[in-house]
Structures are given as structure tokens and as C-alpha cells.
């Protein structure tokens, strides 16, 4: 296996990162091509003051978990793990890698989490030339940490980068950078069952450009934050409203890639919906205004009998990794899964509806409001199919069941 020494936190001893490979080589190549571009945390650093200054729910007593790799106790960050919401809790370190236009990413470094400097004329600020990803790390009961399908995020980033005229890290560089960042912040991975470490890779045009053109320089950043449930309801029914006038994406646009501009476009409709008591907004296609697309930041599924239907990926819908995983899990459990055009009428007549995404995993829908008419699903809370698929996927992600799919990557 490949291995590289990284550091788990300010007071930790070096641990090792094991990659799923039958050959041994150093992680410092090609990602960290020389020592000047690899900045491991100092063992003399004191506890992260950046987080402490912004945390109102910190515990005085740190949590400790066993570390099977070193037979030592890992001291976790001093936060209230039992009341962890989905918000930014800055961790210790972030990863940064840069390259020029028409070049390849080759060298990266860890540095303390903090602000980054950009020219006012940066491509990402002026023309929205940027992408982001999202994935999670979970702590198992034996102290080891699991990633879920990071190579899928790497592939999706590369597809988006091609659409946005940006260079991107290779799949290997992306995955190795994620591993290095997670292990450098391992004390921020929540205890088992208390949440997950949300990992946010960013790729942006950081170089200055005035005329409309690709930026001359690009920056790849990874930062992390421990999180709880995305919706405050947790695994409880959410209430959606169907938006008929505002659209998240249009044919030929960028709705099928995870560009930053896709998400700013949903903020107004989402804010109005939340002010009226809805959890989020479900969008329709922009041409016929009758086919389902997706919720603001997650995919949607409709259940009727033993058939589970979800809108097909045709350029306006993001190919979610959780979506892809749920399709495979549902198929393996005997459901008939269809990727096709799904109408509003089918939505309203469904037995059950649920959403999927990295942040929400699986979120059951309790009601849909369309043109002022509210339709509710079930009478006992979470639908049977939603619960079954949620349990199957989260058990796999958290290492509670055998990973027969080969989707998880274990860090030790």
C-alpha cells in the first residue's frame, strides 16, 4: 500500500495514510513534489484558536477515541458533538494547490485554515469561473475514518472543469489531497453516530482577468468542517413547494455541472419558500414546466409500488453521487429503478417521495405543495422505502455493514 506521513492535529504524533494500492510509493509525489510545497502542521502548535473564537457551544472536556493505528488516544476538538448542526466549524488546516492556464496541477500544501487572497479582477469573482464539490468522512467505532467514493467527486470535478474551461487535478491528485486534508484534521471528525466531517473542494479561476476570458491562474482548495444534519428535521419528513416560474437550470447551460453559479440562482426562491414554512423548493423543467428536475441542492425520487423513478440526467440536472449510489442500492434490494422524465402528476400520485444528496444523504418528503394544493405522503412519518434506503446507505458509509460495493476508502 502507498503511505505518507501526515499529522492528525496540533498535539498528535505522525500517523500514516494508506491508499488502496498493491504497490508502495510516497504520497509526496506527484502531489507534494518537493518539501517546499508540503507544509505539515507543527507539533508545537497550540490548540486552534480560530475555531474557539467563533464557537459558542464548546465543551470544556475534550472527547477521546481510540486510535487503532497507533494504539493511542486521539483527543477530539472541544465542541458540543450532541448538538452539531450543518454550519461552518472551521477546522485546523486546509489544502491549496495552484497552476497556470494550459498547465497541470503538480504541487500542493497544507496550511492553517484562514482567508485566501484574491485580486478584485479574479476570474471567479468577475465571471463566476468556479466549481465546488462535497463529500464526507465518517469515524467508525474502531476509530478508523472512512471516505465515501471520493474518486466519483474527482471525476465529476474534471467533467465540470472541462465545461468551465479550467485545468483540474487528476483523480489521483484529488483523492490524495482529500486524504491528506482529512488526516490533518482528524480530531474534527465527529465520534461515531454524531455526524460527519464535510469536505469541500473548490476549483476557481484565481488569476486576474478584465476581459471575458478564462483566468490565467487557477487555485484548488480543500477545507473541512464537522457537520450534523442538513435539514433541521434530520431523518424526518421535509415539506417542499414546487416552483413554477423560477428555474434552476436551462438546456445547454451549466445545470449538469457543479458550478458555483447554479446555486446562487436558487437563493431567492428558497428564501421565499422558507419564509412561508417550507423546507426547500422543487424545480421544474424550464420548457414544459411539468417535468421534475431537482430540489435546490439535491436530487428527487418518486416511489410508486415497487418502482422508484428519478429524473434522467440530460444536462440540466446534477449527476449526484448519492443519487447514483441510491440507484445501485435500490436495484440490489429488488426495486425497479427508472431514470426518465417524471411529471408533476406522477409526483402528486406517488406513494412516497424522497431526496438525496451528499449533505442530506436521504431525506423523506412529507408533503408537496403545487399551485396552492398540498399533498401529504404517509401517516407515520418517514416512508418505508426512504427508511430502508437511508439505513442501507448510511450503514455502509459508516462502516457498520460490509462494503460489498467497494465504495468506501479507509484511512488509518
From TrEMBL:
GO terms for molecular function: branched-chain-amino-acid transaminase activity. PROSITE patterns: AA_TRANSFER_CLASS_4. The modification N6-(pyridoxal phosphate)lysine is found at residue 258. It catalyses: L-isoleucine + 2-oxoglutarate = (S)-3-methyl-2-oxopentanoate + L-glutamate; L-valine + 2-oxoglutarate = 3-methyl-2-oxobutanoate + L-glutamate; L-leucine + 2-oxoglutarate = 4-methyl-2-oxopentanoate + L-glutamate. Its cofactor is pyridoxal 5'-phosphate. This is Branched-chain-amino-acid aminotransferase. The keyword Transferase applies. Keywords: Amino-acid biosynthesis, Aminotransferase, Branched-chain amino acid biosynthesis, Pyridoxal phosphate, Transferase. CDD domains: BCAT_beta_family. GO terms for biological process: amino acid biosynthetic process; branched-chain amino acid biosynthetic process.
Amino acid at each position: 500500500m502507498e503511505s505518507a506521513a501526515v499529522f492528525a492535529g496540533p498535539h498528535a504524533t505522525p500517523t500514516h495514510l494508506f491508499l488502496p494500492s498493491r504497490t508502495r510509493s510516497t504520497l509526496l509525489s506527484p502531489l507534494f513534489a518537493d518539501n517546499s510545497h508540503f507544509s505539515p502542521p507543527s507539533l508545537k502548535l497550540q490548540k486552534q484558536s480560530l475555531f474557539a473564537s467563533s464557537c459558542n457551544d464548546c465543551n470544556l472536556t475534550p472527547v477521546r477515541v481510540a486510535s487503532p493505528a497507533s494504539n493511542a488516544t486521539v483527543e477530539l476538538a472541544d465542541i458540543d458533538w450532541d448538538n452539531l448542526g450543518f454550519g461552518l466549524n472551521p477546522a485546523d488546516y486546509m489544502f491549496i494547490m495552484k497552476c497556470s492556464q494550459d498547465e497541470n496541477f503538480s504541487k500542493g500544501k497544507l496550511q492553517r485554515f484562514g482567508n485566501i487572497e484574491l485580486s478584485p479582477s479574479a476570474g471567479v469573482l468577475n465571471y463566476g469561473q468556479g466549481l465546488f464539490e462535497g463529500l464526507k468522512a465518517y469515524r467508525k467505532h474502531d476509530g478508523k475514518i472512512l471516505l465515501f467514493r471520493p474518486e466519483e467527486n474527482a471525476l465529476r470535478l474534471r467533467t465540470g472543469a472541462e465545461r468551465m474551461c479550467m485545468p483540474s487535478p487528476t483523480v489521483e491528485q484529488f483523492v490524495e489531497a482529500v486524504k491528506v486534508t482529512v488526516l490533518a484534521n482528524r480530531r474534527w471528525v465527529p465520534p461515531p453516530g454524531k455526524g460527519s466531517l464535510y469536505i469541500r473542494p473548490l476549483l476557481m479561476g484565481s488569476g486576474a482577468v478584465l476581459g471575458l476570458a478564462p483566468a490565467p491562474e487557477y487555485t484548488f482548495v480543500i477545507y473541512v468542517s464537522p457537520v450534523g444534519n442538513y435539514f433541521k428535521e434530520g431523518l424526518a419528513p421535509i415539506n417542499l413547494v414546487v416552483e413554477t416560474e423560477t428555474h434552476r437550470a436551462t438546456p445547454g447551460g451549466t445545470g449538469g455541472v457543479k458550478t458555483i453559479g447554479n446555486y446562487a440562482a436558487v437563493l431567492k426562491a428558497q428564501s421565499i419558500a422558507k419564509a412561508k414554512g417550507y423546507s426547500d423548493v422543487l424545480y421544474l423543467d424550464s420548457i414544459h414546466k411539468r417535468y421534475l428536475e431537482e430540489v435546490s441542492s439535491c436530487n428527487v425520487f418518486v416511489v410508486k409500488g415497487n418502482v422508484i423513478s428519478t429524473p434522467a440526467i440530460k444536462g440540466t440536472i446534477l449527476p449526484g453521487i448519492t443519487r447514483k449510489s441510491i440507484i445501485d442500492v435500490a436495484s440490489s434490494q429488488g426495486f425497479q429503478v427508472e431514470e426518465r422524465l417524471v411529471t408533476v402528476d406522477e409526483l402528486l400520485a406517488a406513494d412516497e417521495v424522497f431526496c438525496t444528496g451528499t449533505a442530506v444523504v436521504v431525506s423523506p418528503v412529507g408533503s408537496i405543495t403545487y399551485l396552492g394544493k398540498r399533498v401529504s405522503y404517509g401517516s407515520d412519518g418517514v416512508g418505508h422505502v426512504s427508511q430502508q434506503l437511508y439505513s442501507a446507505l448510511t450503514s455502509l458509509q459508516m462502516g457498520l455493514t460490509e462494503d460489498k460495493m467497494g465504495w468506501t476508502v479507509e484511512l488509518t
